[in-house]
Each structure stands twice: as C-alpha cells, then as structure tokens.
Amino acid sequence: MKPEPVKPASWTYAEQFVAEDDVLAAARGRAEEVGVTAIGSGVGAALRFLASVLEARAVVEIGTGTGVSGLWLLRGMRGDGVLTTVDIEAEHQRLARQSFTEAGIATQRARTISGAALDVLPRLTDGHYDLVFCDGDKREYAAYLAEALRLLRPGGVVAFDNALWHDRVADPAQRDEDTVAIRDLGREVAAHEGLVPMLLPVGDGLLVAKKEWSPDAD
User: Where are the membrane-spanning stretches (predicted)?
Assistant: First the structure.
C-alpha cells in the first residue's frame, strides 16, 4: 500500500515543530522589509540538526540574506565554529551582522564576504568545510555543487534550498530556466557515485548529500 501524502495541517505542524525565538523573528522581519525570502523554520531546524550531527566547525553559506539561515546554522555548530557566509548584497550582510549581534554570537564566528559566490568560492580552502549550504542563484546550483565537492571534507554535507521550487520541479511541463537548473541538479546529485543523497520535503524542499569517504582513506 502506498503511503498517503502528508496533509497540509500535518506539514504545517512539522514546519512549526521547532519554534523560532524573538531573535529569529526579528531577522525574518528584516528580510521582509528588504524583499528577501528567508528559509522557513522547517529548513532552519534541518540545517541546525545537520550542523549539530556533523559537529560542524567550518560552514560555508551561499546567500546570507538577513541572517535567518545563518542563525540556525550557528546554533547547531560547535561553540568554536566559524560560518563563512557569502552574498552579493552588502546591505543584506549588514542586517545579518545585526541579527548575529542580537543573538550574542561573537563577531569572529561569522565571516561575511560580499561578492558573487562563483568569484568567492574558488578562494576558499579545499577539503576544509563540514557543511556547505546553497541558497543563491538557482541557475548556478550546478556550479555550486562542483565547488562544494572541492570544499567539503570527506563525510561533509552539501545542502540546497528550494529543491522543489514551488512545486515546479516535479511538474515536467515546467521548463523555465530556474526550474530546469534545479531539476538537473537533483538528477546529478542522485546519480553521483561519490554522494549519498536525500530530498527532504521541508520548506520548499531541501536537497542534501553526504560526500563519501574515499575508499583508500585511512
């Protein structure tokens, strides 16, 4: 027997299972003011969980926004962990730093870099990161994956937001550029022999994949 689809009430219950505090609410309010679409609380809880399970010390985030996703990530990371977050909008990063300050996060734990992701990522250290979270230009997702595979240590995880893209990815009739890019990314991740993939139906979809350990690793 096929399982029944999750009903809207259950999906909402799951999304709100881990509640957000006033600091996250304030960061979310700033996002609305400047027209940024912040991740939902379900995606945030998943990111915090991943960062915690990985005992993440070094995380890369593509798409700082006003700090909503960064707050979730930092709360899951080790106390000495550093978040490197990249965004092309310097003003958004200023608002994110305000959110981090309100949360009591030490300034040295959040490194904000203003610039285009594909200009910044090549300057970061190979094999140094535990988690890479991608929430930038959907048409660049395949390029982000290539960079993430270089940046991640074996056993690290890459995560992509909007993996369902407002129900468009599952509909083959939808052929706009963003939808096709996300659909192609999913196929690439699912077929990649060096990744263990999973598509989580939280928020607007969260595609996650673990970078496998090399067979000849000690």
Answer: none
